[in-house]
Write a structure and sequence with these properties.
By secondary structure, the chain is mainly beta. Helices cover 9% and strands 48% of the residues. Strands 14, 15, 16, 17, 18, 19, 20, 21, 22, 23, 24 and 25 form a twelve-stranded antiparallel beta sheet that branches. An eight-stranded antiparallel β-barrel has the order 1-2-5-6-10-11-12-13. The two termini are 31 Å apart.
């Protein structure tokens, strides 16, 4: 794509919260020393705070997928005048056969981030051991500069992802340097966003535009967790930034090289004090026969605001999002009904039903994801409130998903039913490369829940929907 096409695409598909939420301590940060001191005293820096970015690359031709997780914890945080012991910049990679590599650094000043767009990075080590003060002031670089100057680290730009990991096997050792069996990975990937979190130009129309660009039409994108996500009300916050994208490039995992073109790619982020006490998550955008289909589901137990007051302190919520042929089918607690049945491992069942009067069409979805007995998953680290990065969730990229989406219509019985004279909009779309996750706990038995939001919060978060066009 040319620069103009990139700018149009970024304008039309960039979601809210794409920029950083943490206060950077990188020397090249726009915050002055005075502002940093003020921030330390009055803002997030005197409380626990973590921000993480998750990206997934699916390679159907190799029957593999790769996950890239970048996080910064307690940047600039001091406790009783001392640097937080939980401060950490970290890169985690999940690779072939659910293998796992990690590299980290306790120097948070190496981590930088853009405030208004997807741009972040961390240079663990420069080439030629040239770690002088001038190098430390460098943040974003062109992909060419980055290749020439960085020995280990990562950089994410709106249309490019690259990194070099010189770390160790994360499944056998600790998270910090030299705490496991050595391992290496290198990746250099060009990105073409297809869908954010909202309506988008269908993939078929993008393929017929010059240079693969989309039209100049603007598509409104939404906060995954609603408009209150801009405030520190519920934590952690969650935003899907790229529900669907295409990736071209190469990846070297411990000496094995993977090359790919227009491969499915996905991105999201979290921020806040820590992860939920218990959660599930699933994602897939590599379906057989459905190139322009992306699915995400997630849910968990979150703390309610003002939880120090008498009464209910937590609520259990879930959502489902489907992007298909330019349309966004959203099942969220404030406009829809959803339920799930998730085993400690092996089975994830989701159902969503949207009959909201403020919307246009009414629809319903059924999703079943399973893993075989030969897919135990891998334990991954996630930020915890008091102990930092700890083994806290189990993931796999080898889930078998079956997804069906129906349109609903009004019936004389007085309810919406699946359209009897029309086939499903999506009829049993399948894939064997669905990512699944369970986290937190306890997971003693099947977790079966109907998502229910507090009536007061439901009304509050629905306010923008009064002005949303169908």
């Amino acid at each position: 794509m040319d620069i103009k096409s990139n700018q149009q695409l970024l304008k039309g598909l960039q979601t809210p919260h794409s920029g950083r939420k943490f206060t950077p301590t990188h020397p090249n940060s726009s915050s002055s020393r005075l502002r940093s001191k003020i921030s330390r005293l009055f803002r997030r820096n005197n409380r626990r705070f973590t921000e993480g970015w998750y990206y997934r690359l699916t390679l159907p031709e190799y029957n593999e997928s790769f996950v890239f997780i970048f996080s910064i914890e307690d940047a600039g945080r001091f406790i009783k005048g001392k640097k937080s012991p939980l401060t950490l910049a970290c890169m985690q990679l999940l690779g072939p056969g659910d293998t796992y590599l990690v590299q980290s650094d306790e120097d948070d000043t190496k981590f930088w981030g853009w405030k208004y767009a997807q741009g972040l990075g961390c240079t663990f080590e420069w080439k030629n051991n040239d770690d002088d003060d001038a190098k430390r002031n460098i943040a974003a670089m062109t992909p060419e500069e980055w290749r020439d100057r960085v020995k280990s680290g990562f950089q994410i730009l709106p249309f490019h992802l690259q990194g070099r990991l010189n770390g160790h096997d994360g499944s056998l050792g600790g998270v910090k340097s030299n705490q496991g069996i050595p391992g290496k990975a290198e990746y250099d990937i060009c990105l073409r966003p297809v869908a954010g979190w909202g309506q988008y130009p269908p993939l078929s129309s993008q393929l017929h535009q010059p240079n693969g660009s989309s039209s100049s039409q603007s598509y409104r994108q939404f906060s995954t967790a609603g408009w209150l996500a801009r405030f520190p009300v519920f934590e952690p916050h969650w935003q899907i930034t790229m529900a669907h994208a295409r990736a071209t490039g190469s990846l070297n995992w411990n000496g094995t090289v993977y090359e790919f073109e227009d491969a499915p790619f996905y991105g999201e982020k979290n921020w806040g004090g820590a992860f939920p006490t218990k959660w599930y998550w699933s994602q897939c955008n590599s379906f057989d026969g459905y190139a322009d289909l992306s699915f995400t589901a997630g849910g968990g137990i979150r703390t309610l605001p003002f939880s120090f007051l008498p009464g209910k302190r937590t609520e259990t919520l879930g959502l489902i999002g489907i992007h298909y042929q330019g349309k966004f089918y959203e099942f969220v607690p404030w406009t829809s009904h959803s339920e799930w049945e998730v085993d400690p491992w092996g089975t994830w069942k989701f159902r969503g039903r949207c009959t909201d009067n403020k919307g246009g069409q009414k629809f319903e979805v059924d999703v079943l994801v399973t893993t075989g007995e030969d897919v135990p998953g891998v334990l991954l680290r996630a930020p915890t409130k008091d102990e930092g990065m700890q083994y806290f969730c189990r993931d796999s990229g080898f889930g078998h998903i079956i997804l069906t989406l129906w349109m609903l219509e009004w019936d004389s019985s007085g309810d919406y039913i699946r359209s009897p004279n029309k086939p499903p909009l999506i009829d049993k779309a399948t894939s064997f490369q669905c990512t699944v996750e369970v986290g937190g706990g306890p997971w003693w038995s099947t977790w079966k829940v109907k998502s229910q939001m507090s009536p007061i919060l439901r009304k509050l978060i629905r306010l923008p929907y009064a002005f949303r066009k169908p």
